[in-house]
Amino acid sequence: MDSGRVWIPDCSLRRGRWKGLAVKPLILIIDDDSVFRSDLILVLENDYRCREAESLATAISEVEHEEPDVIILDFNLGANEDGFHVLEILKTMDPNIPVIMMTSQPSISMVVEAVRRGVFSFLSKTSDLRELRATLIKAIEWREIQKS
């Protein structure tokens, strides 16, 4: 990826769009629920490039194909894949990719453990979309600082 990029959120736009860029930031959405992935893409696609993965194997392939600026990771990725295990694998690929972990029913202990393991933020899937958008902007800004 071009390390010379500078993300400048245009705060005058309601949806936090990125002005003056040839390429919008890339968000990788990892969730086994295809409806949730599709809904999230519909919400975010005006402001971000979105890619999706339904499993760890697909996520690894996506990260190897094009490094995302932010990853949104479901905590419960089906019967055989634990969100913490997926997080660990992703962090070995690039420890500086901000990961926003989400789940339908977060507990305090789950959030504490996720932060201890290096997630950028932990949100409920029922969170307000404004909260998700604000978290994405912060994550992209943090990512750019890590690159410089």
Describe the structure.
This protein has 148 residues and is α/β, with parallel strands linked by helices. The protein has one domain (26-147): Response regulator (Rossmann fold). The chain is built from 5 helices and 5 strands, in the order βαβαβαβαβα. It has a 5-stranded parallel β-sheet with strand order 2-1-3-4-5, with helices on both faces. It is globular, with a radius of gyration of 14 Å. The protein starts with 25 loop residues before the first strand and ends with a helix.
Keywords:
single chain; 148 residues; alpha/beta; Rossmann fold; five-stranded parallel β-sheet; 16% strand; globular
Count of discrete structural domains: 1
Which sheet architecture does the biggest sheet show?
5 strands, parallel
Q: How many distinct beta strands?
A: 5
Reading off the top of the CATH hierarchy, the class is best stated as Alpha Beta
CATH homologous superfamily title: Response regulator
> Structural class of the helix and strand makeup?
alpha/beta
How much of the sequence lies in strands comes to 15-25%
Mean pLDDT value = 85
Distance between the termini: 13 Å
Morphology: globular
- Can you tell me the CATH topology? Rossmann fold
Task: Give Rg in angstroms.
Answer: 14 Å
N-to-C SSE string, H for helix and E for strand: EHEHEHEHEH
- Give the low-pLDDT segments: 1-16
